[in-house]
């Protein structure tokens, strides 16, 4: 990224729908988070794998019009030089949290601050709606994403060992939270 490059965060509109799945690049699986619950608190350790593998989520096929100009949900896209490089999809959840349905950054732009900017936009959106924090789910084998969430102020708030029962490589779904002060 050059110093002249500016990242622009845009709310979804009809003209931008074509860009949504462009951010869905593959990512590396190189370790996992091992959660532990003791004395009423969650903690975790990390376990690195002997071999790294690459994976990719399937493209989302949703009615994107439901994310345009809505009070209870939004989708923001990050652009640099008219190229879509990231997205965050959020909803106002029943528990007064801003639930992050998806956050993605194109592979070539990871580590450049795009994800952080998208999270800041989601936090701004959530605070405008008087929500108490942000939450999201991640699989235990997505160590890179989990490290990113922790770096952005999220804490582990729970784990579910049954949610991904149909997926043999995933042992645990992790629930991450960031409470607003």
- State the secondary-structure class: mainly beta
Q: How many strands?
A: 9
The DSSP helix count reads 2
Return residue spans where pLDDT drops below 50 for at least 5 consecutive residues: none
* Large-scale geometry: globular
The main sheet comes to:
7 strands, mixed
The side-by-side strand order for the widest beta sheet comes to: 1-4-5-6-7-9-8
Helical fraction equals: 10-25%
**Multimerization state:** single chain
Provide the fold topology.
Layout: E1 7-11, E2 27-38, E3 41-55, E4 73-80, E5 83-92, E6 97-105, H1 114-128, E7 133-139, H2 143-151, E8 155-160, E9 173-179
Parallel strand pairs: 6-7
Antiparallel strand pairs: 1-4, 2-3, 4-5, 5-6, 7-9, 8-9
Explain what the structure shows.
The protein has 181 residues and is mostly beta strands. It is 13% helix and 44% strand. The protein has two helices and nine strands, in the order ββββββαβαββ. It has helices at 114-128, 143-151, and strands spanning 7-11, 27-38, 41-55, 73-80, 83-92, 97-105, 133-139, 155-160, 173-179. The longest helix has 15 residues, at 114-128. The protein is globular and about 45 Å long. The mean pLDDT is 95.
